[in-house]
Amino acid sequence: MLKTPHTSDRTLMIVFTILVLAGPLILAPVGAGYPDLMQRFVIYGIFAIGFNILFGLTGYLSFGHAAFLGVGSYSAIWMLKLLSVNIVPAIIFSVVVSGLFALLIGYISLRRSGIYFSILTLAFAQMSYNLAYSVLTPITNGETGLQLELDDPRILDGASESGQVASPSLFGFEMSDTAVVPFLGMDLQFNVGFYVSALILIGMFYLSLRIFRSPFGMMLRAIKSNQTRLNYTGFNSRPYALTAFVISGMYAGLAGALLVCMDPLAGAERMQWTASGEVVLMTIMGGAGTLIGPVLGAGIIKYFENIFSRINESVVEGWFSALPEGVTDVLVAVVSPFLGSGWHISLGLIFMLVVIFLPGGLVEGAGRLMNLVVRLWQSRKTGASQSDTGPADGVTPAEEVSHRSVNTRES
Amino acid sequence: MDAILLQILNGLDKGSAYALIALGLTLIFGTLGVVNFAHGALFMIGAFCTVTFNNLLSYEKVTISETEVSPWGTPLEIETPYVELWFGDFGAMMIDYSVFWSILFAIPVMLLLGIVMERGLIKHFYKRPHADQILVTFGLAIVLQEVIKSVYGANPIPQPAPEAFVGSIDVGALIGMTENSVLYPIWRMVYFLFAVVVIGGIFAFLRYTTFGMVVRAGMADRETVGLLGIDIDKRFTAMFGLAAVVTGLAGVMYTPILSPNYHMGMDFLVLCFVVVVVGGMGSLAGAVAAGFLLGILQSFASMPEVKAFLFGFSIDQVIIYLVAVIILLTRPRGLMGRKGVMET
């Protein structure tokens, strides 16, 4: 029933790598093939993978992950300002800083679990937001936010004398460089920043896969399924949960650093509770506890955010223009509040529907669909005696169910 | 001395709002065991009930004056609200006191909204994990907030207090200190008194009525109450409605202090979660006490002396979170938390 984890993981990894690297080719036909959006797909994918290591494995629902994203952004932009516009020190520094920050917050928040934990992380994120927005204005530049400037010291590569603000680069390759290749009537845009982030995403995906398969990952799953029992067997679960929290905070910091590297701006609004909520949405939407789910969710939400919010009333009218006038007016009146600037309403509704009907996210939905197809196919093959297939393998139905749930979780 | 008194008074109005919202949160949590992330949205909707009611009241009839002429030569348009046409002075009074009248409007709206929310959505989540409850109410909060935003726009809509309540009272003179040393806006005093009345009413309702007794019994042991042949679900639904009303009224009365905007709910909700955690999850008295306490603390933190002491950093935005951290490290159950409530 299960393939050996080794081969199936290798296939997953290869498919994932190919899909990510072929991003410009795949996304161009659906109108998302421009660098800015593709970078965001990949970066928020990293963010969601990190969040999933905490929420998907340990079941601790953090509502304050945007704080780490923000901390990562601020540390990265300071490195770009002070050291050099090379992104390597910026990324390393922000991962370290956000890791330390996560250690501090995790140490306090993980003293409680369940609802308390969610509330505490939310409170910490809101506190960080307030700190960044008003209290620590000398460091964060408050409402305006930070950006690269001409008179930045930049100790390593020297201040720019060319009279224009340098943009972040990796050993001479500027992040904003894009090669445009015409292909089948489309303009494929191959962007340096996208490929840097994509390579990091692939690395981070591999890391999360290894964590999922490791004894450490099993330990985290044990925390999710029954922490009390785990404690009674003599394990102290808190260090494991704290490690997961810190790792996940470092992922968020990395994502924050990459955001700054692609577009050198850091502002406090990146730390607001809405941003924390967004990563929760992405992970749940794709499927918490699955490997591929968070990346999928991040892509879908960022895609629809971009596409939906650009649709205005006249576009909607265009859709229904073939219908009689009265019907068009009614349809436009019904549909347009959910699109354009009101797209957050539809986001909230979709999210509620997913939580209510499909708690496992889209991956579970796909798994159910697959199961249905397989069952239909089997029942056609074996005729009416379809109910015998389970026990025939020597597995009791209960075991089969548990196997299947493990199967869908990890796919 | 007068500075301290002034800070205490300043903290009272914000503390009242915290206490009322936290009370609603705790009522829902204590009865149904659900953490309601959409609770802030209820506060916000309460505030927008006032806006709606005010808009309804001030529908105007435009008549063109025959004799008077406006400064630029066109006939003067006289706008008279319909209620004033129909009821005369009573109508004018209604417009002036619209905040109080909108309480009457908000109670049925909030009650209905609360009951629909519980029966339509939250009922299905009792057996689901806490994470799912948080997530679905979070989604609902987004939807409610965005609906309000698309109807009323993103800008705050100022609401005036009744004419008689504009201005300040000289609290210092009342208690025998020098005059004009402690001035306090009248409306904030009204808000504080209102909060005290509502909180007292809720506690009396739970303490002295049979309905309240049953609800308290259900909070302690839901199953046994059910086995005694009492339909506890119905009563808990009513309590959800009541909690929605309390929170909505907190929003209605808060409008002259803070102009309603679509994100005020979430701003308050985060703070009120902290209040509930500090007070002790599931403890009504703890929620109220912590609400007032943190409100007052916040106003002390905004004193210039405190700012000077901390090398110019103003910590009034973060003091509540700092206190929450300290409380949680020293008393993990909060100020008045009981053993066994939300231990996991």
TrEMBL record, chain A:
Its main location: membrane. Residues 383-411 are annotated as: Disordered. InterPro entries: ABC_transp_permease (IPR001851), LivM-like (IPR043428). It is a multi-pass membrane protein. Keywords: Cell membrane, Membrane, Transmembrane, Transmembrane helix. Signal peptide: none annotated. It comes from the Bacteria. Pfam families: BPD_transp_2. Residues 400-411 have a biased composition (Basic and acidic residues). PANTHER family: ABC TRANSPORTER ATP-BINDING PROTEIN (PTHR30482:SF17), HIGH-AFFINITY BRANCHED-CHAIN AMINO ACID TRANSPORT SYSTEM PERMEASE (PTHR30482). This is Branched-chain amino acid ABC transporter permease. It comes from Marinobacter suaedae.
TrEMBL record, chain B:
It is found in: Cell inner membrane. CDD domains: TM_PBP1_LivH_like. The keyword Cell membrane applies. The chain crosses the membrane at residues 15-35, 99-122, 190-209, 236-256, 268-296, 308-329. It is a multi-pass membrane protein. Keywords: Amino-acid transport, Cell membrane, Membrane, Transmembrane, Transmembrane helix, Transport. The keyword Metal-binding does not apply. InterPro entries: ABC_transp_permease (IPR001851), BCAA_transport_permease (IPR052157). Its main location: membrane. Belongs to the binding-protein-dependent transport system permease family. LivHM subfamily. This is Branched-chain amino acid ABC transporter permease.
